Amino acid sequence: MAGKTDYEERSIKVDLEYPNRGEFDKFELFGVQGFEDGEKTIRFTDIELSEDQKRVFERTSEIYSSFEKIQKLYEMYISDYAEFNKSLNDYEKK
Q1: Is the model's pTM score more than 0.90?
Q2: Where are the beta strands (DSSP E) in the chain?
Q3: What are the C-alpha distances in Å from 71 to residues 17, 33, 74, 83?
Q4: Is the Cβ–Cβ distance between 66 and 82 less than 8 Å?
């Protein structure tokens, strides 16, 4: 029999650490992302955030998501522009 998947192992760990939580309960933990030995890590703390802090984090996440969308659209625009220029130059050479 194959070993447990990473998801199954994490699920078991969460069930053991938080036995009073249901499957659809929301976890509001403060996580700190960093790097250890060249690998990305996320460490969760017992720090409880105020409602104002939660709103700041949510708004920051929304802004970052918007930035990523704009950046992707810009990259698509540049790619389309370069392709158009190449096609135009190829057409003019003929």
Answers
A1: no
A2: 30-36, 39-45
A3: 39, 23, 5, 18
A4: no
